[in-house]
Amino acid sequence: MRTSRTGRAGQHAALLAYLVFLAFPFLWLVSTAFKPPRELASLHPTWIPKDPTLANFRQAFDEQPLLDAALNSLAAALGTAVVAVVLATPMAYVMARRRTRLARAATGWVVVSQAFPLVLVIIPLFLVLKNLRLIDSMTGLVMVYVVWALPFALWMLVGYVRAVPRGLEEAAAVDGAGRLRTLVSVTAPLLAPGLVATALFAFVTAWNEFFFALVLLKTPEKQTLPVVLTHFIGAEGVADLGPLAAAAFLATLPSLVVFALIQRRITGGMLTGAVKS
């Protein structure tokens, strides 16, 4: 009994340490965003600003076009989420329902493809987009984001499709529904939690992506928010810390808000699906 309590206390301590490790950068970012320049230059930094100010936020908006960049990021993220889900759903259905060697090989390739570093694929992607005349365009950037998010989105949806009982699809087939009708009318509604989770993953991935946007977008008016954040760093590598922290804090809010809004719906949808099945 004592050993069990000790192990449980160790697990709770490890979980608390992990939560502190994850929360520390964000809490420090929020603290820095509201500090005046004098506190930012202090040799004895504090967690809570002694004289909180909004000057860093005003300066950030005055120095860089954050609103336009945020709209560009929003367009890219929404486009990526929609296209990735539309493409991944029928592909995941086929891979989950057809247990062939080709399907297993495709699943393995999906997992392996995530190990490729970005620098390995950027030159081929750049040449392809150049031939298609899609460099410095939001369409080309969304295409790249979809290609990059699709393998993991597909891997996520395969698990959700396998959780849907085959009996429902067989009953639909008896009623005369074809594969496409079954997917749209029977399977897809039961995949709603998985589709939302996949769309969220694709949205957050595109919203936070920096490398592809930096290489593929040249026009300042088309740059996304992560790229614009680098403009707060001077030519000599000196960062304008206050406005940078304020802008970075604002850039993290959409991901946190979207996840907080639909987390309960994802969990509720999973539990409802489990009860129905």
Q: What does the secondary structure layout of this molecule look like, with pairings?
A:
Blueprint: H1 2-33, H2 37-40, H3 55-63, H4 66-97, H5 101-113, H6 118-131, H7 138-163, H8 166-174, H9 179-190, H10 192-208, H11 211-216, H12 225-229, H13 241-276
Helix pairs in contact: 1-13, 3-13, 4-7, 4-10, 5-7, 7-10, 8-9, 10-13
Care to give the gist of this entry?
By secondary structure, the protein is mainly α. It has helices spanning about 1-35, 35-40, 55-65, 65-95, 100-115, 120-130, 140-165, 165-175, 180-190, 190-210, 210-215, 225-230, 240-275.
Strand content: under 5%
How many helical elements?
13
Principal-axis shape: globular
Mean pLDDT: 82
Major sheet size, sense and barrel closure: none
Could you give the distance between the termini?
38 Å
Number of beta strands: 0
- Characterize the quaternary organization of these chains: single chain
Order of helices and strands: HHHHHHHHHHHHH
Task: Describe what this molecule looks like in 3D.
The chain is an all-alpha fold. It has 13 helices and no strands. The chain has helices at residues 2-33, 37-40, 55-63, 66-97, 101-113, 118-131, 138-163, 166-174, 179-190, 192-208, 211-216, 225-229, 241-276. The protein is globular. Residues 268-277 have low confidence and may be disordered.
